[in-house]
Write a structure and sequence with these properties.
mainly alpha, single chain, 13 helices
Length: 277
Amino acid sequence: MNEAINETTTKVLEPPKSWQMIDFKELVAYQDLFVFLVKRDIKVLYAQSIMGFSWAIFNPLVQIVIFTVIFGRVANLDTGGVPYFLFSTVAIIPWTYMSEATSTSSQSLVSDSSMLGKVYFPRLIFPLTPVLAKLVDFSISLLVLLVVMVYYKVVPTANILLLPLFVLMISVPAGIGFWLSSLAIRYRDVKFAMPFLIRMLIYSAPILYSAKEIPEAYRLAYSFNPIVGVIEGFRACLLGSPIPWEYIAPGMFTCVILVASGAMYFRRMERIIVDVI
């Protein structure tokens, strides 16, 4: 009589001993958990609120109105003939997504620390979850942009075909989130520094003004800010102006470096996350 032999496969989990890139196979293996966490973030985002997802429209709309009054009417900034309300709308919609996704991603490990020591799963899921969940708000806020473009009778040009490239570039919060979330578990100063950082970024990117206002001697260094490429790219695609590759190409380079280096640093720090937090 042949006896059936049950073989058990044991997988030994070891912390990374060197700099490593994202293990995409591992993320795919835990895709159900990934999807669950994204759905959870979406559901609890406006839970027990009266306006619900209307906040995704109200939040950027209030900023657009205030900036139009202050910088469009009072300061009278040059927008190259584009109505300031339209000019700021095209910039503030992607900026709102990037700022909120960055802030939430940076605190993802700290806010979900209760889950970290219970069972193993790729910790990289945590900073990625808010980046994806916030895309729902971004999609809803695009309705504001659509209505404004229809009101000002903006006719899309062939530039609109490049819009997916700049939608992909707004993934820069993932790279920043990798860095800041792994730093936040050791240095809680990150939580207090984030509001200050966000306020500084809104003035360091061409959200309220055009990048052409920057002196030519500083434009190359200025263009390495990835937010510059995203904002100028959105404006060119949606308003039909020439694509300013001199601002976009350096920003794309920075975006790739941020995401790659952030993922590698996060993987490096995974071995101490549970112990430190």
